[in-house]
Amino acid sequence: MEAATQTLLFAAELVEENGTYALVVQDVRRGTVQTTPVPRAMVDKLPTFLSALTTKLNPVSQRRRW
After folding, report:
1. Are 36 and 22 in contact (CB under 8 A)?
2. How far is the CA of 55 from the CAs of 41, 49, 50, 59, 60, in angstroms?
3. Is the entire prediction scored with pTM above 0.85?
């Protein structure tokens, strides 16, 4: 069995400094970094957004009958 090879394409961090938030995204292949401010309301909703994304990308498969 061959081991799967993973390649990091992007790395993201949500950082807080003095009560303000910023999303920092690094494009690993191009060696670039983009930063954008993020409102506190969006930071608070991040778990909900991630849950919705997970649900959309990985729908529960139908149960198999034994």
Report:
1. yes
2. 22, 10, 9, 5, 8
3. no
Chain segment 29-57, per-residue pLDDT in tens: 999 999 999 999 999 999 999 999 999 99
Q: Which residue has the tokens 């390649």?
A: 7
DSSP letter at 9?
Answer: -
**What's the rounded Cα separation, in Å, for the pair 8 and 31?**
12
What is the amino acid identity at position 56?
K
> 1-33: buried (b, 16+ CB within 10 Å) or exposed (e) per residue?
eeeeeeeeeeeeeeeeeeeebebeebeeeeeee
